[in-house]
Specification:
The protein has helices at residues 12-24, 42-54, 69-75, 89-97, 113-125, 132-140, and strands spanning 2-7, 28-31, 60-65, 83-85, 103-107. With 141 residues, the chain is of the alpha/beta class. The relative contact order is 0.17. Bound molecules: D-ribose (RB5). D-ribose binds at residues 8, 10, 42, 65-67, 69-70.
Length: 141
């Protein structure tokens, strides 16, 4: 499965570690993020990955900025995106089971690398429950 990853300047190191983690799990990772720590605008990087999800270039994507908030707000402006900001794995799992989140975001200044891996893993392993949850998602759309 192809999975996107994107980040701003505050999350280059964490992005590289998560990218490696995903590759070790067997995913093909497409990197839409900032490559250097030079100050940049998270909105552009969130949008880039969100568009890749919507046009089918990748199936889902992981976003990382300082808090996960700015980059997720930008991603959620793209029609068809459901990006959840999660700081722990329970919310990450439920964001897939109940909300069918096709993107997940977290903050490099908020969570450590091991927590970030647990978040990503919980989200990827979860399965959308459908049923009443699909009706609620349809209402958002
Ligand atoms: C960048 O300094 C910071 O504002 C950004 O990474 C993010 O936390 C915004 O939501």
């Amino acid at each position: 499965m192809k999975i996107g990853i994107s980040n701003d300047h505050s999350a280059v190191e964490m992005k590289n570690e998560i990218k490696k983690y995903l590759e070790e799990k067997g995913y093909e990772v497409i990197d839409y993020g900032a490559q250097t720590t030079e100050s940049c605008n998270y909105a552009l990087y969130g949008k880039k990955a969100a568009e890749a999800v919507v046009n089918g270039e990748v199936e889902k994507a992981v976003l990382i900025c300082g808090t996960g908030i700015g980059i997720s707000l930008a991603a959620n402006k793209v029609k068809g995106i459901r990006c959840a900001v999660c700081s722990e794995p329970v919310s990450a799992r439920l964001s897939k089971e109940h909300n069918n989140a096709n993107m997940i975001a977290f903050g490099a200044r908020i969570v450590g690398i091991e927590m970030a891996k647990s978040i990503v893993s919980a989200w990827l392993d979860a399965i959308f429950a459908g049923g009443r949850h699909q009706q609620r998602i349809d209402t958002i759309e």
